[in-house]
Design goal:
heterotrimer; A alpha/beta (about 325); B alpha+beta (about 425); C mainly alpha (about 600); A: about 325 residues; alpha/beta; 6-stranded mixed sheet; 5-stranded mixed sheet; C: about 600 residues; mainly alpha; globular
């Protein structure tokens, strides 16, 4: 697959973004670089990369969550010192020191989307979630399955002061009847069928659901964890493909690329906060600065991802 | 509905073991059985003979209770088991059956197969085991009790089936072409065994087959089925001597068929007629004496059906030689030879027995015994016999009542009458 | 006549030399000097199944070989697979396998008897129902049930809060029930294939010798015991390797089973191929136990009952009351087995804002309009259609010789090994096989060998074939076991070569079943999910992946509409193929084993 076709190397993009298809098409059209897309959920894509470790196929990975990239970087699987295109100052804060990955936009890891008919006043703090009034009414995803949920869990632990405090809190949530599903879709389905009243999901999913389903509303808890969409380049890819991947990054953060990102999945992933200068968020998104947010250290939390996910699967999801 | 004909030693209807009245079975548009009535006396052995499609299988399956008749009535030992709205299921008819494909349950041993009817009749296990052992001994399979059917030969399998049918001493035994899937040698041996065992047991038996020899060898009575109808019923000898129709004659064994015209009215003996048949010489015809099976007018187109026993070989120049023929084939079998003779015009006589040896191609004289030369009206479907042109002209000139005069130059045109 | 064969070809057996060649070709395979069918098939199956699966399972103990860990040899993965949640899942899996096998056989046996041995009205429709059930992906069946009974589901909206059924459904009983219903077609096909050998005279013999209707049934049903035991084994293996129900109903019911544990291990963080491989090993071992049990049950009980002597069977003729009762029973089964999921799927595809209880129950065709006008359906549909045609044909051609190897008595250890291998492969979840393909075909050595097939349609096709072959071969075993060896040898003694004998005698006798295999394989490939998910080539989405994309982007209605369209398409192809077979196949082919009315 990575053999040269004609004069140009084919760029293979692994992506879990809702807008990846049209962006790849536009990129190919704009640059003439032959590009192929493997579109899947974040978990399966990372699994694919692990399976192919001995002989990597991918050229560029584009998924949500910088922890996964930090983990890949720690395994030496990412090309370092990428050329980072111009970003907003907020965006620049998300670029790691070794420049091994580049963010393309920002979302929040766990917003609350709730059934406004059943819930008149949604919780306003994390601690309220474990009160008996919400018993059996809250759902979230399993971070081991749903890529964007790990940052939510990591952010929660970070906010509460550490892993053990976080685990205690999650145990309490579980005792309070927490519903754990695989993906955003499943959790939202529980919400839409009245099995739960509050879903903790990524903002793109939450705002999208509220847009398409009347009666659903979005609310935010304090210290929402920032969840960037990120691109990284395979360290073992041929130099030509790496160069093409760099061009892809440049394209995505250009005006044309941003247009594709904002139009590809208007009720889902397109609902992100841009970090490319000169691009405004889609209407319906609250101003990011109006929300209370936090950033977690991707390297510290990326390294803990396996352990925490295993713990979550064994203790909370069962 | 015809009155049931009761077979066997003039027993009254009520005592008949099996009694069918107007039995009819239709499958959608196929009339498998039409208005069959008969009765079988106790301990009698009835064989139903017919070609495939004649309805014999349907009849025996109706008897067994596997099929439900469309109309008519079946009585077993005087009780109605089928008729009107009544249909007694097979297991309540106190009968047993031997199947063409044996139908031995492959997952049961020989012993288990034979024991089955006893278990169903709630015979205590000790007594049942004894009876199974005794039964297997009678059919010579004692050593095979623990084997599975597929480990036995075809003949042994059929013996197991026979043992299974006999073991519970049922009032009625049914045989559905039990020997048709066995080889000839075995067939004869088993046929004898079946006859012996059934008669020892004193059971009433109904046996169907398409094999005439088997039917005549086994049956106290033989019934002939044609297209779902019972066309004749009687002792084997009666059927052989006086078949009710050309079909029955054909199905119960013929050497060949000659077509001709009835001569007359003068007769050598009252029970004989004379028939003019063509010869190899298209200008001549032979005049033979034969036994009429129906009322026929002189001049009628007839067929002379020759039983194998009707044909004897003689010197072609002998007085007794009615016809001449060429030996086409001979088969030696110990006591003598079976010949196939060619009469010309594509006519053949088969199964002609003679102790003497004739070589292939040799011309022989053929003498026909009048008693076994059976005259029936010509089948409507066939054309008039190809008689000599001259004879036809005369016959036409003589008018309907006129007799055909034997041609003076017809070779050996003597009336053959040998007693 | 007095000449003798050379010693090496006949040993003590003296044969006339003129007939020697032909007679030798009639000897069992292992007596033949040239590498026969067994050899070729063994190599083929080796490449398709043994190497990839073997490599994958090797990862469990030797992760370093494939760069999946540091240990050269470790039993750690097995330790993990046989403790904690994985062990719990294994126990659940065994329960589901055994339970669903019982459910499936208990339903399939009466169904097969009623449809094949009676004049039950609507037999053709019921047969189509069996096929539809076979085609329906297990996740579709499971989701149909969930849609109806889940909180806020269709029934709740209709004012029926079937709490008790929901309670049953979301638990072991529900998982066993759905897996059992999905297993019915497997058991049905195996049993139906054996029924022609159960000539009516066996039953009639029981009746005339004093057995009532039920006793007669009890007497003759053991004749098809091989098919029944095979059904148990197949359904058990199918159920323990099923992923569709595991990922939907079982997951939602918090009833973890092994396939899902395995999936978690390869699909989620932290990824562990060694753990997945170890779980795969435990599943294969479980299937091995099923095979052993089947073997023990069948010891010395292989009845070759379909020979020239077997007469066609006649159907039992029901009266009006019998028709009513039997029809209600069969109808009831299909109502539960198909009616529920079909209703679930169709209602789901017709509802606006599916799954929400917040807004009214609005029916719309909008979902179909969206699906039929966009290219999201057509491109994957055509791609999967093409693959399904190819895979169906390849598997059809391969499954006959494989099944023949398995049924030939004298083929020795090769057949025995094949049997274990194929049953093991049935039990091995497709997703494991796909993971094995990734591992093997992605190795650097494959690239240097020029076999860089990973990420190509070719590899996807091969994986489909490898995934479908074991099951389809096993489906053919029943009918082949019934094909009396003399039917073939008689053809060969009449001067036909082995191949001709097969073409002229074996093929006609088996043609109906071979057509079934093609159809089953075609439909299975059209909607196959686990292999497609792991092995689809970049930018080329098979139908199931495209549907899954729809579902995962919360477009349940659109995804279900796509599913409905795909299933309808598969049914249309089935109908066309069966009609063609009716028209084109010689009468004699179709009549083999058919009932006389």
């Amino acid at each position: 697959m990575s053999a040269t076709s004609g004069s140009k190397q084919t760029l293979l993009v692994y992506s879990a973004q809702g807008y990846d298809k049209n962006t790849v098409t536009a990129f190919q059209k704009a640059t003439g670089i032959p590009t192929k897309l493997v579109d899947d959920s974040t978990g399966p894509l990372l699994a694919r990369i692990q399976a192919e470790k001995a002989n990597p196929q991918w050229g560029l990975l584009w998924v949500d969550g910088n922890e996964a990239f930090a983990a890949l970087d720690q395994q030496g699987m990412l090309k370092k010192h990428l050329q980072v295109p111009a970003l907003t100052s907020f965006g620049n804060k998300l670029v790691p020191a070794d420049k091994s990955f580049v963010p393309s936009g920002v979302t929040l890891a766990c917003a609350m989307v709730y059934d406004s008919h059943a819930v008149k006043s949604p919780p306003t703090s994390w601690q309220q979630l474990v009160s008996s009034s919400w018993n059996g009414k809250i759902g979230m995803n399993n971070p081991a399955v749903s890529g964007p949920t790990y940052p939510c869990v990591a952010g929660l632990m970070n906010y509460l002061g550490g892993v053990s405090q976080g685990e205690t809190f999650l145990q309490k949530l579980k005792s309070n009847g927490l519903h754990v599903s695989q993906t955003n879709g499943d959790t939202l389905h529980l919400l839409q069928t009245g099995q739960i009243q509050i879903a903790l999901v990524q903002t793109t999913a939450a705002i999208g659901a509220a847009k398409t389903t009347p009666g659903l509303k979005v609310a935010y808890l304090p210290k929402e964890t920032l969840l960037p969409s990120v691109m990284g380049i395979d360290a073992k890819a041929p130099a030509a493909e790496q160069a093409e991947a760099q061009k892809f990054i440049d394209f995505v953060l250009s005006g044309a690329g941003q247009h594709q990102m904002q139009t590809g999945d208007p009720t889902g992933d397109s609902l992100y906060w841009p970090i490319a200068p000169g691009t405004s968020p889609l209407p319906g998104l609250p101003s990011l600065s109006s929300l209370s947010t936090q950033t977690v250290d991707p390297y510290a939390w990326g390294a803990r991802e396996s352990t925490i996910n295993t713990w979550f699967s064994g203790h909370i999801a069962q | 509905m015809s009155t049931p004909r009761v077979l066997g030693s003039g027993e009254p209807d009520g005592a008949a073991s099996v009694q069918l009245s107007g039995l009819t079975k239709h499958y959608s548009d196929v009339r498998a059985l039409q208005d069959v009535s008969l009765a079988v006396g106790r301990s009698r052995f009835l064989v139903l003979l017919g070609p495939s499609g004649s309805g014999k299988s349907t009849l025996i399956r109706c008897l067994a209770g596997i099929e439900r008749p469309t109309a008519g009535e079946i009585r077993l030992a005087g009780d109605v088991v089928a008729g009107g709205h009544r249909h007694l299921s097979p297991e309540r008819r106190d009968l047993a059956m031997v199947f063409q494909d044996f139908a031995l349950w492959p997952h049961m041993t020989v012993g288990e197969n034979v024991q089955f009817p006893l278990r169903r009749r709630k015979v205590a296990s000790g007594a049942a085991a004894d009876r199974v052992r005794a039964m297997l001994q009678r059919v010579g399979l004692t050593r095979h009790a623990e084997r599975y059917p597929h480990e036995l030969s075809g003949g042994e399998q059929q013996r197991v089936a026979l043992a299974r049918a006999l073991v519970a001493n049922p009032a009625l035994l049914l045989f559905d072409e039990p020997l048709s899937s066995l080889d000839a040698n075995l067939r004869e041996r088993l046929r004898i065994e079946i006859g012996t065992l059934v008669r020892e047991q004193g059971a009433t038996a109904v046996y169907i087959t398409h094999d005439q020899a088997e039917a005549f060898a086994l049956g106290d009575e033989v019934g002939i089925l044609e297209s779902g109808r019972l066309v004749q019923l009687g002792a084997p000898e009666t059927i052989y001597r006086t078949p009710a129709s050309p079909f029955v004659a054909r199905f119960t064994g013929l050497s060949g068929v000659l077509t001709g015209r009835l001569l007359g009215p003068e007769r050598v003996r009252p029970e004989r007629v004379r028939v003019a048949v063509p010869t190899t010489d298209s200008t001549r015809q032979a005049d033979i004496s034969a036994t009429p099976m129906a009322e026929l007018r002189p001049g009628a187109a007839v067929q002379v059906m020759l039983r194998p026993t009707a044909v004897r070989l003689c010197d072609p120049e002998a007085r007794a030689a009615t016809l001449r023929a060429v030996v086409r084939d001979s088969a030696y079998h110990g006591r003598g030879y079976d010949y196939v003779l060619e009469l010309g015009n594509g006519l053949e006589l088969t199964g002609v027995f003679d102790r003497r040896r004739f070589t292939r191609g040799e011309t022989v004289g053929v003498h026909l015994a009048a008693e076994q030369a059976l005259v029936f009206a010509q089948d409507a479907a066939l054309n008039a016999p190809p008689l000599a042109a001259e004879a036809l002209a005369r016959s036409a000139g003589a008018g309907p009542a006129g007799a055909l005069t034997p041609l003076p130059h017809a070779f050996n045109s003597h009336t053959a009458e040998v007693d | 006549m007095s000449q003798r064969l050379a010693p090496e070809s006949g040993g003590a057996v003296a044969l006339p030399v003129t007939a020697g060649g032909r007679l030798r070709s009639l000897l069992p395979a292992r007596a033949r000097p040239r590498p026969g069918l067994s050899g070729i098939m063994a190599v083929l199956l080796g490449l398709l199944l043994v190497v990839p699966i073997g490599a994958f399972l090797l990862v469990a103990v030797m992760p370093r070989l494939f760069d999946q860990g540091n240990a050269l040899f470790t039993l750690g993965a097995f330790g993990a697979a046989l403790s904690g949640p994985s062990l719990h899942a294994l126990g659940d899996t065994a329960l589901v396998g055994a339970g669903s096998a019982v459910v499936a056989v208990a339903c399939a046996l009466p169904l097969a008897l009623l449809i094949h041995r009676t004049n039950l009205i609507g037999r053709r429709a019921w047969t189509v129902g069996i096929w539809a059930l076979l085609l329906a992906p297990s996740y579709l069946v499971a989701l149909g049930w969930e849609r109806l009974f889940e909180p806020g589901g269709v029934l709740v909206r209709a004012g029926v809060n079937a709490v008790f059924i929901r309670h049953l459904l979301y638990g072991p009983a529900g998982v066993i029930g759905v897996d059992g219903i999905k297993g019915v077609p497997f058991a049905y096909l195996a049993i139906a294939a054996a029924l022609p050998g159960l000539g009516s005279s066996f039953e009639h013999a029981a009746r005339v010798h004093g057995a009532g209707r039920l006793q007669a049934l009890r007497t003759v049903v053991p004749i098809i015991a091989p098919a029944i035991w095979t059904s148990f084994a197949i359904v058990f293996a199918e159920s323990i390797s099923d992923f569709g129900v595991a990922a939907t109903l079982a997951y939602d019911a918090h009833f973890p089973v092994s396939t899902f544990a395995l999936f978690n291990a390869v699909d989620n963080e932290p990824i562990s191929f060694p753990l997945a491989a170890a779980i795969g090993c435990t599943l294969v071992a479980l299937a091995g136990l099923a095979l052993l049990a089947q073997r023990r049950a069948l010891r010395g009980r292989s009845y070759q009952v379909l020979s020239g002597r077997t007469r066609p069977y006649t159907r039992h003729r029901f009266g009006r009351a019998g028709q009513l009762v039997a029809g209600a029973g069969v109808g009831g089964f299909f109502l539960v087995a198909l009616g529920v999921p079909v209703f679930g799927a169709i209602s789901a595809s017709l509802i606006k804002n599916l799954g929400t209880q917040l807004y009214g129950f609005q029916l719309t065709l909008d979902n179909y309009r969206r699906v039929l006008t966009g290219s999201d359906l057509y491109t994957p549909m055509l791609y999967s259609l093409r693959l399904a045609l190819i895979v169906g044909t390849i598997v059809m051609l391969l499954s006959v010789p494989v099944a023949r190897l398995l049924t030939r008595r004298a083929s020795g250890p090769v057949a025995g090994m094949l049997d274990y291998l194929l049953l093991g492969a049935v039990a091995l979840p497709s997703i494991v096989m796909a993971a094995g393909y990734i591992l093997v075909y992605n190795l650097p050595v494959m690239h240097s060998l020029g076999l860089a097939l990973y990420g190509t349609t070719t590899l996807l096709t091969i994986a489909y074939v490898a995934g479908a072959l074991p099951n389809n071969s096993r489906i053919l075993i029943g009918p082949l076991a019934q094909l009396h060896e003399t039917l073939l040898t008689s053809a060969r003694t009449h001067g036909a070569t082995g191949a001709t004998a097969w073409r002229r005698v074996g093929l006609p006798v088996l043609s109906r079943f071979i057509v079934w295999v093609w159809l089953y394989c075609f439909a299975g490939t059209l909607l196959e999910l686990p292999i497609s998910e792991l092995l689809y080539p970049p930018s080329q989405f098979p139908l199931s992946v495209a549907i899954e994309r729809r579902l995962s982007t919360y477009d349940f209605a659109g995804g279900t509409a796509m599913e409905v369209v795909a299933v309808v398409g598969a049914l249309v192809v089935t109908g066309v193929v069966l009609a063609l077979y009716r028209v084109l196949a010689p009468r004699g082919w179709r009549n083999v084993g058919a009932a006389t009315s």
